[in-house]
Amino acid sequence: MIKKFKLYIMLVAVALSSVSCLDKMPEDGIPFDESLQTVSDINLAVIGIYDAFRSKYLYSGNLTLLPDIQTDLVYGVNGNTNVYGDIWRWKEIKPTNTDIEAVYGALYDVINRCNFMLDRADAVRKKTTDDKDLDKLDQCCGEAYFARALAYSELVKLFCKAYESDEDAAGQLGVILSEHYLGDETMRRASLKDSYQFILDDLDRAAELLELEEDFDTDTQGTLYDSIYFNEYTVHALRARVLLYMKRWDEAIKYATKVIDSGYYYLSSCTRAATSNASYYKYMWTNDFSTEAIWKVGFTVNAYGGALGQVFANYDYSTLRPDYVPATWAINLYDMNDLRVSAFFQSFTTGYSHGLTWPLLIKYFGNESFTNYNILHVSMPKVLRLSEQYLIRAEAYVQRDQPDYGKAGSDISVLRTARYSSYGGSTSLNKENAMDVIEQERVKELYMEGFRLHDLKRWHKGFERTPQDQSLSNGSSLKVEKDDPLFVWPIPQHELDAPGSEVEPNESNK
Predict the structure, then answer these.
(1) pTM to 2 decimals?
(2) Structural domain for 315, as ranges
(3) What are the tens digits of pLDDT across the range 400-434?
(4) Signal peptide location in the record (predicted)?
(5) In 3D, which of 66, 170, 175 has the Cα closest to residue 492?
(6) Are 163 and 157 in contact, with CB atoms under 8 Å apart?
């Protein structure tokens, strides 16, 4: 998938074309040294990087859905289409699984677009004298460094073991690190420690290049929330997530606090009305606008990615035939005053012959403005949200050497106040209950947003499924022990078999 990457690029009116693995340049290709000659060309390349995140194999599809479908959050329904069936059944996940291959390939596609642009940036900089153009070039490079860090953060999350310590990570397998588009980089996995350090180094570069001006004014220069572009605070938000995964608790607190205290983002309230029909929180899911979205993948009716809600509804303007329905235990976690329930779930009688009536996931039923064009179940993925930063900080507060249960409880209280019809008092946390509360809050807030598999992996927890009404017999009775090899996805078989490959497999490949 990533061997050598002797790729070509076709510059078109608005963006980069798709890339392909080829051994030689096609006749109509533009040679590497002749491509991206100006700052305008570099900007087009960045547009291509953003466009790559629209892939249905990334946040608007596989990358978001598979890690949660694989765990205990949903159940396959009798009579379903078997989409993602191997993933849900767990034990049938193989190195040849095409859904996993697609995630791996799409993430390295992002990385290679970034490398292509970054490798050409210096040559363009040498020919550029205009200060505004130089500033624009720096911004483009910052966006590329961030995009590469984001893609690698997802690869290590899915294809590597959890980060336990620097010493342990130095002996664990990471991912193949590719820093240049054309080069002699060996197809060999770096250590997990080096892989995470690569991500942090890219975030350092991105933070420097995307730093906001001291006089940045949202009144005159626009808001930062609900952005489809990267900026300094998307860098801080991703860094907080990565540092949490690295168990660097104090640093995770530091960067989550930068985002929370910035004043640029506000939790979307479940009680304040955005329209006559929806609260600000519900509007985030029905119309893809939110004051707490730090970065979302931008869609239009003419350019969008996958349909996140398809497998939870399969609505054909007549009936609903969901492939997967929410797990009872997850729904039962919500308090009776928790208004996330009405934003996420609604009871329907399905169109199956067995007539299952169940609370279906409507969180991704689709952007209402898209449905006017008969585009169903398409939502813009909110990849980085303020609520996650509160959860990151709360967890870090209770996990650090000197826990601060009061501050952690305060963060949970702030989040619940924005989500409950009423939430009086404070959240009392202590050594015995703190992680249980935080783990449950992550399920309730981040339901089906792609976090569950890695959360269980890094917490060293297993799970158990027990059959519920009309759930598939193959997969409904499943007990997965902690540290099961399949918490780490297998490296795609074609990557292991590629000529010249020195890629080592995961335990799940065997």
Answers:
(1) 0.94
(2) 264-445
(3) 999 999 999 999 999 999 999 999 888 999 999 99
(4) 1-22
(5) 175
(6) no
